[in-house]
Write a structure and sequence with these properties.
Helix content is about 45%, strand content about 15%. It is an alpha/beta fold. The chain binds adenosine-5'-diphosphate.
């Protein structure tokens, strides 16, 4: 009965399933794929998170979801609300309190009853008003008749009638205050509420009382009528979802915690100087299930008490970023395309080849061999852009070509920035220079999540007055120090120069953008420092990425595919990557002919490839090779 078991109701050719991109699914287009009704059945992958959500829905437990954006956190939270019993839903009414106008009364009734009660009150008020005006006109008629016939002074009569009229109008205002304010109305809800309070300010989260500009003098709106529900009240008996939980200010987190603990929370005006701040209602029910979400960072910065509250009374789950690429899973991805088409409602169906291209993209974006990406919001974006392009052409079907065009357009901001950056640098010829240069190495970094950028590193070594220092530009100081520290052990062993007596200046050419991760630049920094120290040139047609152990082993890094593509785009013809990353390389065909990829295991190999082929280099590399026997053996074998 779990969503994961929902199979696709279409013809499957078992024989070809393993190799087939659609997992053996025999279809013409997404029209042939049925989309499940329940949201929980539409969720792809995230088996663990989905099981937890289903269990938590039964037991009414809170859930903390940690994971990358667009992997289905809010989708699962919404799915949970569909699983909660609808029978328990309530309406909430706020009434005028005749004893204390600033302390409105709160009443809870079964859903649907709220509207009826308000209607009944309105009807009563209408009747009362009718009676009143009937009475008023009778009295006016009597007064006018009396003044005309008995006192013979019509002016006095009109004056008296006017006073009576105003007195009635003024008096009738009071009867409006008898009509309750329907604070929470669940009459037309098809499932338990789902409230997304991500980024909500205090009023939207905790409720508010509007300011009344006419605070007295009979013109005021009665205070109970100015009360507004917050997300915590609207989510009563349903799900309250808060993404990026750490961005919620601490006071709101504290109040949220109180609401969770007490199951009810009074509403008061949130802005201190407003007349609303004087008003405080009786407690309003807040019996919701909380789903807090965020990345790992978010957890660390969230209010510890709130976190332990959720942890102690609920579950914590991690969202997967990728999932194993199996025929069954690929069939689900085909269904995903159908789901996104159905969700949009205006897109043409996707042809078989178009679906295949989306699945290929999912493979490529996984950045991991034998896996598919679960960052499905982005993949959904690709589906929509492809569909829009097809629609723009009045095409009946979305074709593979539409998807390919869309891939060009639906690049992330980071990708667009990176491309733009590469373009600009080409203009300034900051790009690859031919030949060799001392102390300059083309490093590679990841920008954002899905784009690489070439980042040249320059090193210069100067004699030091005191103890040697590592001097780097900007916020990269720490990373440069670490990288130099890692290589200094290696350098010490082979170099005649004592680097502890030297200042090493490291400059990252034209950075200014964030997202440069230190570890993956350490072979770059090492190579630049060694080149500068020994005064040997580095091949400028080459780029590299890799982390470094103190023994000189080249360790794996993230984002190799994007980095290789960035190197190719920048005009390099060779890229050095860690051998351990070899299986992660999934570059697009167009780049395959542009660059040669050389996987390495040891820094000596890096130097062998990168440094200018002079006698000095040979002895340098030889010396380096002699340092770590084990790494050398490995190199010999490989
Ligand atoms: P998050 O809350 O993790 O940032 P969302 O749940 O808002 O991500 O996902 C955005 C959209 O991406 C969803 O509405 C859905 O269309 C698609 N999506 C994301 N994850 C999944 C998934 N695991 N299965 C199916 N669709 C998904």
């Amino acid at each position: 009965d779990l969503g994961s078991d929902v199979e696709i109701d279409a013809e499957i050719d078992e024989e070809i399933a393993e190799e087939h991109l659609l997992g053996g699914l025999q279809i013409d287009s997404t029209d042939d794929i049925e989309v499940p009704d329940r949201l929980v059945d539409q969720v792809i992958g995230q088996e663990h998170a989905r099981d937890v959500v289903m269990k938590a829905a039964k037991q009414r437990r809170h859930v903390m979801m940690i994971g990358s954006p667009g992997t289905g956190k809010s989708m699962l939270a919404k799915a949970m609300s569909e699983l909660l019993p609808k029978e328990e839903l309530q309406d909430v009414l706020v009434y005028h309190n005749p004893d204390d106008g600033n302390n409105p009364k709160v009443r809870t009734v079964p859903s649907g009853k709220g509207e009826q009660i308000v209607d009944a009150h309105k009807e009563e008020a209408r009747k009362r008003n009718q009676m009143r005006s009937f009475l008023m006109w009778i009295i006016i008629a009597v007064v006018l008749g009396y003044s005309l016939l008995v006192v013979s002074n019509i002016l006095l009569g009109i004056l008296a009638a006017g006073i009576i009229y105003l007195a009635f109008r003024y008096g009738s205002r009071g009867s409006d205050s008898m009509i309750p304010n329907l604070l929470v109305n669940n009459a037309d809800e098809k499932s338990a509420p789902f409230e997304d309070a991500t980024g909500a300010h205090a009023g939207a989260l905790l409720g508010d009382v509007r300011h009344d500009p006419f605070q007295s003098g009979g013109m005021e709106t009665p205070s109970h009528d100015r009360v507004e529900a917050g997300a915590i009240h609207k989510a009563n008996k349903g799900v309250l979802f808060v993404d990026e939980i750490n961005t919620l200010d601490i006071r709101s987190q504290q109040k949220l915690m109180t609401a969770i603990q007490e199951g009810e929370f009074s509403i008061t005006g949130q802005s201190e100087r407003s007349s609303g701040a004087m008003v405080q209602t009786e407690p309003v029910p807040t019996d919701f299930i909380m789903i807090a979400a965020g990345n790992l960072d978010a957890m660390e910065n969230m209010h510890p008490a709130l976190r332990s509250r959720i942890k102690g009374y609920g579950y914590e789950v991690y969202m997967d970023d990728t999932i194993e690429d199996t025929p069954e899973m690929r069939r689900k991805y085909a269904r995903f395309v159908a789901q996104e088409v159905a969700k949009d409602g205006r897109l043409p169906a996707f042809s078989e080849e178009a679906i295949e291209e989306v699945i290929l993209t999912a493979r490529r974006r996984a950045g991991r061999k034998g896996h598919l990406t679960l960052e499905l919001r982005n993949l959904g974006g690709l589906v929509r852009v492809s569909g829009d392009i097809a629609r723009g052409e009045d095409a009946e079907r979305v074709t593979r070509d539409h998807v390919l065009q869309a891939k060009g357009r639906s690049r992330s901001i980071e990708q667009q920035l990176a491309d733009d950056y590469i373009e600009r640098r080409k203009d300034y010829e900051l790009q690859v220079a031919d030949g060799y240069q001392v102390g300059r190495v083309n490093g590679l970094a990841v920008m954002g999540e899905d784009s690489g950028i070439m980042l040249p590193v320059m090193a210069e070594v100067t004699p030091s007055q005191g103890p040697g220092q590592v001097i780097a530009t900007g916020q990269l100081q720490e990373m440069a120090e670490e990288a130099v520290q890692n290589v200094s052990a290696i350098i010490k062993k082979f170099s005649d120069e004592d680097i502890t007596e030297k200042d090493i200046h490291i400059q990252f050419v034209q950075t200014g953008q964030q997202g440069v991760d230190g570890d993956s630049a350490s072979i770059t920094v090492a190579t630049a420092v060694i080149s500068a120290l020994e005064n040997v040139g580095v091949d400028q047609n080459l780029a590299m990425t890799g982390s470094l152990s103190v023994r000189g082993d080249v360790l794996p890094v993230g984002g190799v595919t994007h980095k290789i593509e960035a190197a190719a785009k920048s005009g390099c013809d060779t890229v050095i990557i860690p051998k351990a990353n070899e299986q992660d390389v999934m570059i697009e065909d167009e780049y395959k002919e542009m660059v040669e990829i050389i996987p390495v295991e040891h820094i000596s190999e890096v130097l062998d490839i990168a440094l200018e082929g002079e006698p000095e280099k040979d002895s340098l590399v030889d010396r380096l090779k002699s340092i770590t026997g084990s790494a050398l053996e490995k190199t010999g074998e490989g």
